[in-house]
Design a protein that fits this description.
About 50% of the residues lie in helices and about 15% in strands. The chain has helices at about 1-20, 20-35, 50-65, 85-90, 100-110, 130, 135-140, 140-145, 155, 170-175, 190-205, 225-230, 230-240, 275-280, 295-300, 305-310, 320-325, 340-350, 355-370, 380-395; strands at about 45, 70-75, 90-95, 115-120, 165, 180-185, 215-220, 245-250, 265-270, 285-290, 315-320, 335. α1 (about 1-20) packs antiparallel against α2 and α16 (about 305-310) crosses α19.
Length: about 400
């Protein structure tokens, strides 16, 4: 019951933040996902949410496994049939689950059958010391805070039975290995329908007014205000300097009063469904990914680069390990560490249309090669899962 009260609180917050229309649609999409039938299979992703993290880390990961001959499905932890799945699946991957009595009983049932459990994460939010510092944690309602005060999924990662993990980045993998876990890195990837939506958005993109250069920032979820603030002075300076520069902001984000002097050059929209999200990205000229320089942000994935790259939009991202691995600096995007570098790279792209096209083309090639569910590269992970499935089948004979 507590989780459902928390969900109601989150729904109310969504309507307040995104508006009645967008907030209500988001809630209805969540209910549809909750009611979606759980297909039979061998690997079951168990998620505590229905948002974009769950889509990328569970639904898209399951699609990838299915494309590589591993039968996988997804269930939301609120599903009324959850406990029955302990008998019918062979490997269980837990993503951002809230540890309650049902999850505890579910895990105990899995353990009694000596089946495999993996902890899955795309964030450091399983560590309370990191989670409690985030704007996300500070801004959620009190009931939600109580439910995750020990970290999201901390009870699972700290269980000695759980020896293997799946992480979205090499940085996260290293943090999990420090806890004595064996870790597979499985990058965030676009699903086949998402690639199709992105290509449609790219075909329909309207950049007819080439005199106007749009820079975009896509916050995705609440709690990115401090990331964006790291480049606010650069953006304000350039908005004043370039009469043809505009700033497009999508998603929940609180911006400083410093922007009041250039407010007429800023467009801000609320959360939108994924297909419209690609449309918004396809209609900008330069994608910005600023981050704070701390472990919580170092653990973040390259998903914003992926979403921009698939629609041939060039990215400038904070220069950290994850983006160094994703972006070939000056070829498929740009990396920036400080204000001087951010300004230099933004100006370079504003003033050079051909460079924007070239970088955008290379970014799309990189995404197609490495960041769709059809991409190869997780062979060791696939083999591990197949081995666990085969062991379970043999034990059941």
């Amino acid at each position: 019951m507590g989780i459902w009260i928390g969900r109601v609180g989150k729904a109310i917050d969504s309507i307040k933040r995104d508006g009645l229309r967008s907030g209500t649609k988001k809630i209805m999409d969540a209910f549809r996902m909750l009611k979606k039938p759980v297909e039979p299979g061998d690997v079951l992703f168990v998620t505590g949410g229905v948002g974009r993290s769950a889509i990328y880390r569970c639904h898209n990961q399951a699609e990838e496994l299915n494309l590589h001959d591993i039968k996988a499905s997804v269930v939301v932890q609120d599903n009324k049939e959850l406990l029955s799945f302990a008998k019918t699946f062979k490997v269980f991957i837990f993503h951002r689950t809230i540890f309650d009595n049902r999850i505890e009983r579910f895990i105990e049932s899995i353990k009694k059958q000596n089946k495999t459990i993996l902890f899955e994460t795309d964030d450091l939010n399983y560590e309370p010391r990191h989670l409690h510092k985030t704007d996300y944690y500070k801004n959620i309602n009190e009931l939600e805070r109580r439910q995750i005060k020990n970290g999201i999924g901390s009870e699972i990662i700290n269980d000695e039975y759980v020896t293997h993990c799946v992480a979205s980045t090499a940085f996260l993998a290293q943090k999990l290995r420090e806890k004595g876990k064996q870790v597979f890195v499985s990058k965030n990837k676009l699903s086949q329908p998402e690639v199709e939506d992105a290509q449609k958005a790219l075909r329909l993109a309207d950049k007819s007014n080439r005199n106007i250069i749009k820079l975009g920032y896509f916050s995705g979820t609440p709690g990115h205000d401090r990331d964006f603030a790291t480049i606010e002075n650069v953006l304000i300076e350039l908005l004043q300097e370039y009469s043809n520069m505009r700033l497009f902001i999508a998603g929940p984000l609180g911006i400083s009063e410093k922007f009041d002097q250039v407010r007429d050059k800023i467009e801000q929209v609320s959360f939108v469904p994924m297909d419209r999200h690609f449309t918004n990205i396809a209609n900008i000229d330069i994608n910005l990914i600023p981050l704070e320089d701390d472990d919580f942000c170092r653990a973040k994935s390259e998903i914003k680069f992926i979403e921009a790259g698939i629609v041939s939009v060039p990215t400038i991202a904070f220069d950290n390990q994850t983006f160094k691995e994703a972006i070939e600096n000056g070829v498929s995007g740009f990396l920036a560490m400080n204000n001087e570098e951010w300004k230099e790279k933004i100006v370079n792209l504003i003033e050079n249309e051909e460079l924007r096209k070239t970088i955008g083309k290379k970014a799309k090639e990189a995404v197609i090669e490495k960041y769709t569910t059809e991409s190869e590269g997780n062979g060791e992970y696939y083999e591990f899962l197949k081995l666990q499935i085969d062991v379970e089948k043999n034990d059941g004979c």
